[in-house]
Design a protein that fits this description.
With 497 residues, this protein is of the alpha/beta class. Helices cover 32% and strands 11% of the residues. The protein has a five-stranded parallel beta sheet, covered by helices on one side. A five-stranded parallel beta sheet has the order 10-9-11-12-13, with helices on both faces. A three-stranded mixed beta sheet has the order 2-3-4, with no helix packed on it. Strand 12, helix 12 and strand 13 (415-417) form a beta-alpha-beta unit. Helix 1 (2-22) packs across helix 16. The longest helix has 21 residues, at 2-22. The protein is globular, with a radius of gyration of 23 Å.
């Protein structure tokens, strides 16, 4: 009697934990074909690949080693690659592509640095915290989801799976084409190859992709027909082929197909104690009652920067673009700053949302965003164009809202103002009690913003029982389970979803 009861209890506990960690899904990672581009040398130049389900990293912090500079020197879209030069030494890879051949602007080694430590990025030398502090790539959500599934939710047998993950390397394709490493013909040909591969699978045919999941690590806006993401990768929101698939992204409208998740940031805990230590540290931080504006110069921010550069008593300015004399800006400098201030100002950048909003929350600083709960009195560039992509709409579903009609949820963790003068007034007029309540709410939500170490496994329950199931991927999977897409078109023509 007792052994049987123990087995039943253990089974129920295991099922409950699977529901919490994986949304109850058994997820099969579809093995997509790897790209074959003319600039890519032979596979021996890839030391390890983030697509490899068996690679778990070295077990300790991996120190970033500058890779050899790739021999390719593309200056125009039409210059052919020079393949006569020997291939690089072994480096991390993504979908079979050596990181040094992906490239990100003139700083050619960045993709290798970001792939270090199984996609978490290189560990920064800092004195802020004894915890490891990672220089994580803003657009690495697909890597984190892939490694999380392999570690916690993976079902090897597709016939037993209830959800199918497609690890499309969209960010890699985007960067490779943008900086002339891959040609348009190669990129479009690769995506056609992926679609042909899926069409031949019985698991795809059964529901036309409705039980499949794609991660778009950049904003979903980039993949509208007229945007660069669609042109550089061949992946388009409006493509009927993908019209039933579920999508995780970092920014987009409120939509039944789409769950927008926090940007990956700097802290990736391995245990509950890591989370508790960080929460204790931010709560003990001594903070100025002013706001910090840490942002690069833009025309839309000119007046805000001018006000914060002056001694107005409400805010200070730090140039995040490094154009202030003697400023050697690093990511941990930003977090260190945030922890010294009660508030942060978060004007829009290229898109309405910023990773700085989530950095601010993780640092325990109250973000001030430029938006309007109701219709704005007049247009304001500080809130960004694309009104349906702003925080209130983008992250409503992630934070538990069933529709985009309740717009006040964000006031639990941020101050919402329309214009510069409103921000300065709010900083001066807010009471200590209101500040304390916002800080309390932020501390409670922080575990839901932390992407855990990409080597973390939920079966180490004793070390992660308190916070493990609160992580953003688990939260998004549960939302996908509770409110699945029913195939009915929603949104507007602008969404193209």
């Amino acid at each position: 009697m007792w052994p049987l009861l123990f087995v039943l209890v253990a089974t129920a506990r295991g099922a409950s934990e699977a529901d919490a960690i994986c949304g109850g899904f058994r997820i099969h990672v579809v093995q997509l074909p790897k790209p074959s581009f003319s600039v890519i040398p032979n596979a021996t130049s890839v030391d390890w690949d983030i697509w490899d389900p068996h690679y778990q990293g070295p077990g300790t912090v991996e120190v970033f080693r500058m890779p050899p500079r790739p021999p390719i020197r593309f200056r125009t879209r039409h210059q052919p690659p020079d393949l006569s030069v020997p291939a690089d030494g072994p480096v991390p890879g993504l979908a079979g592509v050596p990181c040094s051949y992906i490239r990100a602007g003139d700083v050619w080694h960045l993709p290798c640095m970001y792939l270090t430590n199984l996609g978490m990025g290189s560990v920064q030398q800092q004195t802020l915290t004894p915890l490891d502090f990672y220089d994580t790539y803003s657009f690495s959500l697909d890597w984190f989801v892939l490694r999380y599934i392999y570690n916690n939710c993976h079902e090897e047998d597709p016939e037993k799976a209830t959800l199918f993950f497609l690890p499309l390397p969209l960010t890699m394709l985007y960067k490779g084409f943008a900086f002339h490493m891959f040609t348009a013909e190669e990129v479009l040909g690769y995506l056609s190859q992926v679609k042909a591969h899926l069409e031949a699978l019985e698991t795809w045919k059964r529901k036309g992709g409705r039980d499949h999941l794609i991660v778009v690590s950049k904003t979903i806006y980039d993949f509208q027909d007229v945007r660069k993401g669609a042109a550089y990768t061949g992946f388009r929101n409006s493509d009927p082929f993908w019209s039933l698939t579920n999508v995780f992204s970092i920014e987009g409208p409120f939509h039944q197909r789409l769950i927008n998740m926090p940007y990956p940031t700097f802290l990736h805990p391995r245990s509950d104690s890591d989370v508790d230590n960080w929460l204790a540290q931010i709560q003990a931080a001594k903070r100025s009652r002013k706001a910090i504006l840490a942002a690069g110069s833009r025309a839309s921010r000119r007046h805000l920067i001018k006000e914060c550069s002056a001694d107005n008593g409400a805010c200070d300015y730090f140039s995040a673009s490094g154009d202030v004399a003697d400023t050697a800006f690093t990511y941990w400098n930003l977090i260190d700053l945030y922890m010294k201030y009660t508030f942060t100002l978060q004007p829009a950048g290229d898109t309405p949302t910023r990773r700085g909003f989530f950095d601010s929350l993780l640092a325990g600083s109250i973000p001030i965003i430029f938006d309007s709960i109701d219709e704005p009195r007049r247009k304001n560039k500080l809130s960004g164009r694309l009104g349906d992509r702003r925080y209130i709409y983008s992250y409503a579903r992630f934070f538990g809202e069933t529709s985009d009609e309740n717009r006040r949820w964000i006031e639990k963790i941020a101050i919402v103002v329309e214009y510069e003068e409103d921000a300065f007034r709010a900083i001066k007029e807010i009471t200590d009690e209101q500040i304390a309540q916002l800080q309390k709410n932020i501390v409670e939500i922080i575990p839901s913003l932390l992407y855990w170490d990409t080597r973390w496994r939920s079966d180490s329950r004793a070390r992660s029982r308190k916070y493990g199931a609160q992580n953003p991927i688990a939260r998004a999977l549960r939302e996908l389970r509770d409110r699945p897409y029913n195939g009915t078109p929603t949104g507007t023509a602008l969404d193209q979803l």
